[in-house]
Design goal:
Blueprint: H1 3-21, H2 23-29, E1 37-42, H3 49-53, E2 60-65, H4 81-92, E3 97-103, H5 107-113, H6 127-132, H7 136-145, H8 151-170, H9 174-181, E4 186-193, E5 198-203, E6 208-213
Parallel strand pairs: 1-2, 1-3, 3-4
Antiparallel strand pairs: 4-5, 5-6
Helix pairs in contact: 1-2, 7-8
Length: 220
């Protein structure tokens, strides 16, 4: 089946499920959205937030970009895609939590570790290199503190450390920082290990990622 026909058939299944068999959900969503969670995820085609969490339409407000990064709060005339989504989710929708979801085998973080941010010009325009400079602190930490690890281990560490960079950057937005301090907003860092099929969460007290959902067949 050609790709476009497959997409159209998929929409027909969606239509059948949500506009005929279970029309109550979209009868409500037609009036507006009330998600309680903002999820910042990666563009990677293997990491679908709705499939990974089992959520229905309307439950997650999702922002996806290369390497699931959150930039620091910066005011200026240039376009602010991620920052505007954060503002809308927090200040208008009043979400209760923000999850930064990173993952194993991330191509963006691999490019970061291979030095893409040091390339002054790229044939494609250099947009990727500029974007990934957000995660430069993660690369610098791994190169300094984890030099004895193998390249694969360094990549996995950088994937996790980039999540922490984004968590720190979230707190540079005053309306996020104030809500966190008031106990009205929770920020979480999650890591999907694509090889294990497991989910890890950052424990701020222990300063490390701990299992939230262990690999199948292992002890919790």
């Amino acid at each position: 089946m050609p790709a476009i026909d497959r997409f159209l058939e998929g929409f027909r299944r969606f239509q059948q499920q949500y506009y005929r068999e279970d029309s109550e959900l979209f009868d409500t969503l037609k009036e507006g959205q009330r998600p309680t969670t903002l999820l910042v995820g990666c563009c990677d085609s293997r990491v679908d937030p709705l499939k990974l969490t089992g959520c229905e339409p309307g439950e997650l407000f999702i922002v996806r970009n290369v390497a699931n990064l959150v930039p620091p709060c910066e005011k200026g005339l240039h376009h602010q895609g991620v920052s505007s989504a954060l503002e809308y989710a927090v200040c208008v929708l009043a979400v209760e939590r923000i999850i930064v979801l990173g993952h194993g085998g991330c191509g963006g973080i691999r490019a970061l570790m291979q030095g893409v941010t040091h390339e002054q010009e790229e044939p494609s325009g250099g947009f990727l290199a500029k974007w990934l400079t957000i995660a430069d602190p993660a690369r610098e930490f791994v190169q300094t503190e984890c030099a004895d690890l193998s390249p694969d281990e360094q990549l996995a560490m950088a994937e996790r450390m980039s999540i922490l960079v984004s968590l720190d950057n979230l707190l540079s937005f005053p309306w996020i920082r104030d809500r966190v301090a008031a106990g009205k907003l929770q920020i979480l860092g999650w890591y999907f290990d694509i090889r294990e099929g497991a989910l890890y969460g950052f424990d701020a007290r222990a300063r490390r990622f701990v299992p939230l959902v262990c690999p199948q067949g292992s002890r919790p």
